[in-house]
Amino acid sequence: MLSSLEPRREGRDPVWLAEARLAAFGWVGEHGFPTRKDEDWKYTGLDPILAVPFEAATPGSGRRVSADMINAAAVDLGGPRLVFVNGHFAAEFSRLTGLPPGVEVTNLAAVLAAGPERLEPFFSHAPGEHHAFAAFNDVLAEDGAFVHLTPGTCVDEPIQLVFFSDTGEFPLMSSPRSVILAGPGSRATIVETYAGIDGDVYCTNAVTEAVLADGARIEHYKVQDEPVSAFHLALLDVRQGRNSRFSSRSVMLGSSIARHEVRVLLEDVGAEVSLDGVYLPQGDQLHDNTIFVDHAATNCTSHQLYKGVLDGRGHGVFNGYIMVRPGADGTDANQKNKNLILSDRAEVDTRPRLEIYTDDVKCTHGAAVGQLDEDALLYLRARGIPLEAARGLLIYAFVHEMVDRIGLEPLRAQLEALVAGRFGKGDRPVEP
Fold this sequence. Notes:
By secondary structure, the chain is an alpha/beta fold. The chain has eight helices and 21 strands.
């Protein structure tokens, strides 16, 4: 896999970016890919991904994709919409009108062509700072979304980012890189959707970086509904300034192996982050949620609530880690993970963790794993509700708390249908 994904952008990158790509590629060659011996990957084996001879996706690929496919995968939210096919901007499906003054929404390749020095801080970290796949994104990223909010600007309509894969006969790796810069006092909603064509073999290796200045507010949503023939690896990296607010809600439905990694640095006083997620692995799917929140300043707040519903041989992972640094007094952090297991072949690994180096804090964490309440099921059956419908009601009630936290009505309605349909009558996979 390594040789087929080496950098091939001679002469197209500025010197600093070419050097960063080569350094990242060399780091991967020296250190290799994560294994189960690595603490943050102990529950997620990568052999099925590493066995595929992926090629890097190129602009212009994806000739089967249509506007109807895009609209079916991602409900149109009415505001600015950037569509990427195999990680590259597709202008014919995008809409960039109606933006208020002081807001720049474009694609990363356009920024690289016009003023690449603006992006140098996002490629200048140490190679492999996180892991090999993040380094590979450094190597291969050519396009993605670029959102810049100048101080005090507000975008009322959600900014929608749609990443659609159409790989055809060759297994491809797409590497979208998105950058969100929120100036002081700015506000916006970002919605990321990942989808593709059933049966296509590909790997999405995405990185989204968000930097919030003082008082900025970003509401972020992510919907991952890629086909089970695909793989999904993603990193959401957030840095927050004084009194900033960041919330992210993720829904994980698709992919054979999917890892949603979130890293948040609360680096100035009064920053607040809220992270919610729901994951629904069925069949042989594996859904991995790895979260790291770094409390590095005083009076910062973090909330996490992740819920999993596992059926068939589905495997869910919650690996949550909160670090409270020395001097980060006044920290308020809580972390919860709840799981509902529907099959005796399903598996969940949950590992909430706190590491605290100061005394004046309020921190809690907890995890729960259980099955459907037989008394509640019997109650519904006694009132004439068929078994499958009764199961579906109880499952949906467990998940609905998460769906209710989605403030965008069209997106909430879409996800309600997806979640309800996943466990409705006749939709549950039959175990051999």
